[in-house]
Amino acid sequence: MNRQSDLELVGRAVDLWRDDPRGDSARGALRQALSVAHERLAGPDYEYMDHMHSLDRADIPTADLADVSTWCTWVVRGERFSDGHIDANIRDGLVAELMARLLDVIEVETEG
Predict the structure, then answer these.
(1) Which of 43, 48, 72 is CA-nearest to residue 60?
(2) N or C: which end of the chain has fewer CB within 10 A?
(3) Distance between CA atoms of residues 79 and 71, nearest Å
């Protein structure tokens, strides 16, 4: 996939979540979007444990790309230690918030 396709996938996932936050299709789409964001769009943060201490969920609306990368890495890596970590963060809306912010950050970077 190319970057534009990845962004469209993330955008569709956010739209599905906004239409039906509890729907199975939204949750599946957000899981896929998180993977794409973590692997290709924001990229993994290999020092996420050092960076997480300074992040707060309330700051997501103003997060930069590095912060989104840290959050995505925390969600993805957390699954290794706690089965259901990704799904729990999808259900409570964190992943959707991160994906929406990622789209905003990339849009601003592209315009700038």
Answers:
(1) 72
(2) C
(3) 13
